[in-house]
Structures are given as structure tokens and as C-alpha cells.
Amino acid sequence: MIRHARWRSGLDGIVDGLQYSNWSRKIFEDLRAGGVVAVHATAIYWENTRESLSRIAQWNQRFEQFPDLIRKVRTPADLGQAGADGRIAFMLGAQNCSPIEDDIGLVEVFRDLGLLFMQLTYNNQTALAAGCYESDDAGVTRFGRQVISEMNRCGMIIDMSHSAERSTLEAISLSRRPIVISHANPASVHPSIRNKSDKVLQALSASGGFLGLSTYPFHLKGGPECTLLGFAELAAQAVDVMGIDQVGIGSDLCLDQPTSILTWMRNGRWAKEMDFGEGSADNAAWPPPLTWLKSGRDFPNIRQGLLDFGFSPADAQKIMGANWMRFLEAGLKPE
Amino acid sequence: MIRHARWRSGLDGIVDGLQYSNWSRKIFEDLRAGGVVAVHATAIYWENTRESLSRIAQWNQRFEQFPDLIRKVRTPADLGQAGADGRIAFMLGAQNCSPIEDDIGLVEVFRDLGLLFMQLTYNNQTALAAGCYESDDAGVTRFGRQVISEMNRCGMIIDMSHSAERSTLEAISLSRRPIVISHANPASVHPSIRNKSDKVLQALSASGGFLGLSTYPFHLKGGPECTLLGFAELAAQAVDVMGIDQVGIGSDLCLDQPTSILTWMRNGRWAKEMDFGEGSADNAAWPPPLTWLKSGRDFPNIRQGLLDFGFSPADAQKIMGANWMRFLEAGLKPE
Asked: Is the pLDDT of residue B164 over 70?
């Protein structure tokens, strides 16, 4: 087995709670060089059941193609191996409930296939709940309640990153198990529609839930100009609300993705009139990258920023990976 | 844990290599009372990918509903538990390649979901090979070769029960691993289209493959009048061709199924002009059951028939279950 000088174990490695990169050997190698041991990777945005299977199959082919670099997580035990053999543990997720269509039985089916996270909504209203861009939010639906219970049973983690406020509060309250907001920031720091109110974050924290801090420029004060210290300050403010044990990173990195993918993420097949999401007609492309997070190799910069801001090494590591590890090892167990 | 006086371990329990019953508590209890510890159950005939997922989900619900009676097999280790806790080990299979549609990646996807067997064809030509009712058989196709290799890799067992002769011989030859004919009989005993020539059975045997003996009346000399000794004689003739270690039972029981299911099995959605399969327009319904195999409770009759015919107790047990167990524990391992 190849030894990697910079390789970290699960305990001191970095965990990224959300990415949707254009996966390649280079991206995997960059992440490994950056000490990343586990990543929650979005496999699905708008894909229906049949299409979702092909996304899963595409990931299976990646696991077959890059056996030296990545491994698929199905169980907490798989995650416990993260960092043990130089392979990054990949956890697949859906940012929408489209894979299950109208079929409660497909929660278990997709959990069996290694889909470990599912958002109940992606920006728009779904059969389960309201998305964060809807003008009205009627909360979790009849089907939504059943899906929450079934996700709890199967050990599929509920993610409300792109959901509206009332729906998120209801999901926190209805779920028997802690849920996550895998990639968003406190709205008190930067009031974008995707960021979360202190009310949501307090309810999330009180229920044992988890927040992954986003590095997507639209979610940051100053946008692409946000400094490392600015990000560390944001982390400190999140910790003030959530506590030091329930915050991690959810970078929302979309490395090497063409604009066509951004358009797909924003419009799926539902929009005839172009939707620009967090951008606008005159700002329709990807935002410029942060200077301190241009590839997976740069993750140690975040740790350094946290230390420079004044976090202790132990607290910085909680945010960089240890918190996610502890949360996930519990959250991925079936009931 | 409830102890069952008549319960057998995997070594002396009965394994049934194919059933498609109308599953209920009564049927499971009858099988258990009959000493059956493992069953290959057909989940899919003509269902496409999406529909196949709902069939899998339906089975998952059965496993949730009857946790005292049945357990799902995914791995050889699961099968090794057969009989250990009073639960029958169920192995799901497809009698057709319809679940994978045109997507090689769906072999692994369905194997992950616990689909352990797949026939390359069900009576008709498919994208993979020719079915036994086609007038011409051009053998295994381009896609078929890739699927055989992928099934080998994933530990999904190739079943050619309903395939045509040339296709079957080619599948035996192309496959890196032994294949099965899970439910059919020697055509030398009863020359029905579904039964297999000695040439096929010899090639199957030489490659380490496996034959499950069918009790479907259309596959038996004398049909529903076939006696227990007649069936034991058929078993002896199969053993003469295949050897004592590669023959088991594949009952093809379809207990409590309405005629509408028989019509579905025969016609799927492909037939506008009714196809009667092994029946005919004036004999379109299920054949009457054998007097000695009316439910799962009657499996011990088969063992008794083999003993009465002159098989040793050890050889009778090989046919009743030990052979299947040994074959499956190897065949279900991924490469």
C-alpha cells in the first residue's frame, strides 16, 4: 500500500460536507494532497428515479476506475476507514427528492445503493416541503412526514440546505434524528436567501443537528473578496449560535464545472424562463473562486485561518473534520 | 428467539432454486414447516428499470413485515445464516434482463439491491440472447457478452432456464464463472421446449454449472400425474448427466397465484395476440398441482421419494439443499 506523507487519519483529516465538482483524477489527487479524508458529493439535482440510477452507476464506475483514490461509503464502518488506506471516503447525496418520485419504498432502495443524504427540496416546492425561493411556505407535506420517518428508519440523512424556513423548522421537529444543513451560513452574517436565520440554527442546534459552513461566494460577506479571516469570523459566529461540536465545513465547491452545469442546477427542466438562482441576468456565470480555496489542495488554508483567528487547534480540528465524523458515524446507522 | 422443532440448519435444510408464489404469512410458514431454509424468489418478469425498483421495494416491505420468518440475502455470509435463526433466506432474482434496460451500469446497481440472479432471456429474444420459444437463435449478442462479464464481476448469477440452446451453450462458454439453469429438467426425460438437451446439460456440468429440477407439471413426464417415484427417476437421470454435486431442486412453484399472473408471465406487454406459453388455447390455466407438492409443507416428500428410489441419505440431501448451498456461497461472491 502506498503511504502518503501528508495523509491524515479520520481523526485529524478534513471532511467536506458538500461538493459537486467535475470529478477527475486531478480533483481527487488535489483533495488527498489537501488532507481531505471524506466528502459528501452531490450525485443528483433534478434527476428522476431512472436517471438517478444512472448517476449512481456513474459513481460506481468512478469507484472502479480510481480504486487507489476513492472508496464508497455505505455504512458507518466504511466511514471509519476514511483516511486509513489513503483513499478518500465518498458519501453520495441528492440535493432534491426527485430520485424517490412518489414512492416511499424508494428511500430504502436508494439508501441501499449508497445514497446517504437527501434534501427534501431544492429551491422549489416539492411533494415533501417548500424550497427557499418559494414566496410561500406551507411546511412539510403529508408525504413529507412519511419520508422523514422512513429516512430516519433507514439512516438516510435529512438535509434542508435549500429549504424554506417553516419547512426546515418543521423537519427539525418532525425528525426523530438530528438533521443537517450541509452547506449554508448564518444569515446574520450575510443575509442571502440560502443562508439560515438564527431561529433555524438554534432549533437545529437544540435538536443535535449540524451545520456545514459554505464557501460558495454568494453565501459570504464580501462574496469572492471574502478573506480567510472573514470566513473564520463567520465560523466563530456560527459556533456562537450552534456550539463548537455541531459545525463543520460544507464547501459547496463546484470545481471545473462548465456554466451549463450551473444552468442545469438552477433550471433543471422546470424553467422555460431562465432562473438565475443567486446570480442575475448580468451576473449569470459561476462567481470567481476564493483566492484561498482554488482547489482541494487549499483546504489546510481554512484550518490556518481558524487558528489565526484564535480557535484552539482542537476546536479548529472539530470544525475541519472531527465534528462531521462523529455526527455521521451516528447518523448513517439504520434505526 | 423462538426455537422450531423441525427447523434445519443450512447443511440439512432444503433449498428451493426457484419460486414465484403469491407471498403471504401462510406460504412462509408452510415453507418453514417443510424445512425449507433458502428460496430463490422471482421478483421480476417483464418489469422495466423503474418498475423493478418497486418490486424490490415491495420485497423490502415484506422483509420488514415478516422479520420472524424471512431474511434478505445479499452476501454469501447472509446465506450462511440460512436456518440459523428460524428465518428463511430469500434470494431475489429476475427471470428476464428487463431491469437493466440498455445500461451495463445497472447490473451492479441491481446486485447492490440484492438481485442475485438474472436470466438473460425469458422465452423471447432480448438484447442479450435468444429465448427458448424463438424459432431462430443467433446466440449471445454484443451487449450480452458485456453483461455476462459484468454479472461475473459483481457476483450476479447467470440463469439460462428460459433461453434457447445456442445462446445457452454460448453463455456457458463465455461466462468466467459457472452459470445455472435454476428450473428445468432433462429433455431426454420429457421433451418440452423448456427442458434442456443432454448437450446443454453436459456443457453446464463440465463448466461447474448447476441444474435445479423443476416440479412444474408441464416439465414432467405425465404432467400433473407424475408420481414421486417418477420425479426421483428424473432426478437420477439428471444426476447421470450432471453428476451428484451439481443438481438441486428449482420447484417453479407458483402457489396461490391467480390466472392473471400466468397471463402476465406469458404475455407481459409484448403480446397483442395471446400467447399460451406451455399451455394452449383450450388449456390456458395453471396446471393442477402435483398431489405430493401442494404447499411448502410437502418438500420433505421429495426427500422421501429420493430415498425410496434408492438415493443414499447423503446424496438425497445434496439434491435437497447441500449442493445449492455450496454453489451459491461461491457464486454470490463478487470477483
From this structure: yes
Q: Which of B140, B29, B138 is nearest to B87 (CA)?
A: B29
What domains are there in chain B, each with its CATH number? Answer: 14-331 (3.20.20.140)
Rounded mean pLDDT, B320-324: 96
Q: What is the DSSP pairing of strand B36-44 with strand B88-94?
A: parallel
Q: What is the pLDDT of residue B11?
A: 60
∠B85-B90-B95 over CA atoms, to 5°? 170
**pLDDT(B105) > 50:** yes
CA B288 to chain centre: 20
A9 pLDDT tier (thresholds 50, 70, 90): low
Q: A72, A112, A146: best mutation site toward chain B, by most B Cβ within 10 Å?
A: A112
Mind listing the pLDDT tens digit for each residue in A173-183? 999 999 999 99
* Chain A, nearest residue to B48 by Cα: A50
The rounded distance, in Å, linking the Cα atoms of A250 and A253 is 8
pTM score above 0.90: yes
* Chain B residue at shortest CA distance from A50: B50
Residue for grid cell 438473460: B120
Residue B54: list chain A partners with CB under 8 A.
103, 105-106
Distance CA B30, CA A151 (A): 34
The long-range contacts involving B224-228, CB below 8 angstroms and separated by at least 24 positions, are B224/B287, B224/B288, B224/B289, B224/B290, B226/B290, B227/B292, B228/B292, B228/B301, B228/B302, B228/B304, B228/B305, B228/B308
Nearest-CA distance A73 → chain B (Å):
13
Residues A281-309, mean pLDDT to the nearest whole number: 96
ipTM for the complex shown: 0.87
Please give the share of chain B, as a percent, with pLDDT higher than 70. 97
Of A49, A60, A113, the CB nearest to B113: A113
Enumerate chain B positions whose Cβ falls within 8 A of a Cβ in A. 49-50, 53-54, 56-58, 60-61, 103, 105-106, 108-109, 112-114
